[in-house]
Amino acid sequence: MSENNKDLGDKAEDAFEKAKDKAEGFAEEAKEKASDFADKAEEAAKEFKEDVKKTFDPNNPNSGKTVAIIAHITWIGWIVALIMNNQNKTEFGSYYIRQTLGIWILMLVLGFVPVVGCFAGIIGIVLIIISLVNAANDKMVPTVGIGQLFQDWFKSL
């Protein structure tokens, strides 16, 4: 029986050594994959950082366009655009920040007017869409009828 135990012990030791070798192989492969992943992630982060610099660079003509488009996306978007524009002021971004603020306030005021209040949301959305299309096309077109007043009233923005 001790001969059988010795054979079983040798077999177990051989199996353990094989498993250990396999585990070391897997560990090496995992280290290589993790290292490759880390390198790719670092490269992607650097590219992203460069893209952000280009997008929000005040010398880049499209940086104002980005702010202008973001300003049209709800009140939160307007606040984000205002913060972005304060960091790198552009004429185009400021123009559309003033326009969208005026449209949001107009929607709020029209909401309290009887009969017209029912359509205030529709009127506001139409004005926002028109303004957004103009911003996306790099045109500084004032909101129909009152856009120039918005520029005068909110010139400090």
List strands and helices in order, with pairings.
Layout lengths: L1 H54 L5 H11 L2 H14 L3 H20 L9 H17 L10 H7 L4
Helix pairs in contact: 2-3, 2-4, 3-4, 4-5, 4-6
Give a short summary of the structure.
With 157 residues, this protein is mainly alpha-helical. The protein has helices at residues 2-55, 61-71, 74-87, 91-110, 120-136, 147-153.
Would you write up a description of this structure?
With 157 residues, this protein is mainly α. The radius of gyration is 31 Å and the shape is elongated. The protein contains 6 helices and no strands. The protein has helices spanning 2-55, 61-71, 74-87, 91-110, 120-136, 147-153. The longest helix has 54 residues, at 2-55.
List keywords for this structure.
mainly alpha, single chain, 157 residues
Overall pLDDT score? 80
Rounded to an integer, what's the Rg over CA atoms? 31 Å
How many angstroms separate the termini? 93 Å
* Distinct helical segment count: 6
The 3D shape can be described as elongated
Pattern of helices and strands: HHHHHH
Kindly name the structural category. Answer: mainly alpha
Strand elements, count: 0
The largest sheet, given as strand count, sense and whether it forms a barrel, is: none
User: Which spans have pLDDT < 50 for at least 5 consecutive residues?
Assistant: none
Helix fraction bin = over 70%
Determine the strand fraction and express it as a percent band: under 5%
